[in-house]
Structure formats: structure tokens, C-alpha cells
Amino acid sequence: MALHAHKRGEESNDSLQQRFKRQMQRTGILKMLRERSTHKKKDNKRLVRGKALKREEYRVKNRRKQFYSNM
Questions:
Q1: Which of 52, 51, 71, 70 is nearest to 61 (CA)?
Q2: What is the pLDDT of residues 38-68, one digit of tens each?
Q3: Which of 21, 58, 59, 70 has the fewest other C-beta atoms within 10 Å?
Q4: Confidence (pTM)
Q5: Measured between alpha carbons, how far is 21 from 36 in angstroms, rounded to an integer?
Q6: Residue 30 burial by CB count (10 A; 0-12/13-18/19+): exposed, middle or buried?
Q7: How far apart are CA 16 and CA 70, in angstroms?
Q8: Average pLDDT along the chain
């Protein structure tokens, strides 16, 4: 995906650069490229399951907080 930023009338180079930078951040291209630049090992099943259990504990705790505010 190509991004283009053309000068608008009397726009300065600095503002043109800032506008282009904002466009890049909105699309998320740089973030995606940085993530792709390094190889990440996938988590093993044991670790994934542990994380899922921990998330579920937090969710249950937060649901209780929602109904019983003094806990």
C-alpha cells in the first residue's frame, strides 16, 4: 500500500512531513513492519492454557467487583 502526501498550496515542508507521518501512523504500516522484522516463537500449548486460565480468573474477579462494589 503506497501513501502519498503532496504539498497543499503554501504548505511548509515541516507540515507536509508531519502530515505524512500521521498518515503512516494511522495505517499501522510501520508497526506491522517492525513486528515482522523479528521472528517470534509461538507459545507452547501449556503456556497458552496457563494464560487463558489467568485471564479467566481476572474476568471472574472483575465481574464480582462489578456487582459487589465493596469487595
A1: 71
A2: 988 899 999 999 999 999 999 998 887 777 6
A3: 70
A4: 0.49
A5: 20
A6: exposed
A7: 53
A8: 89
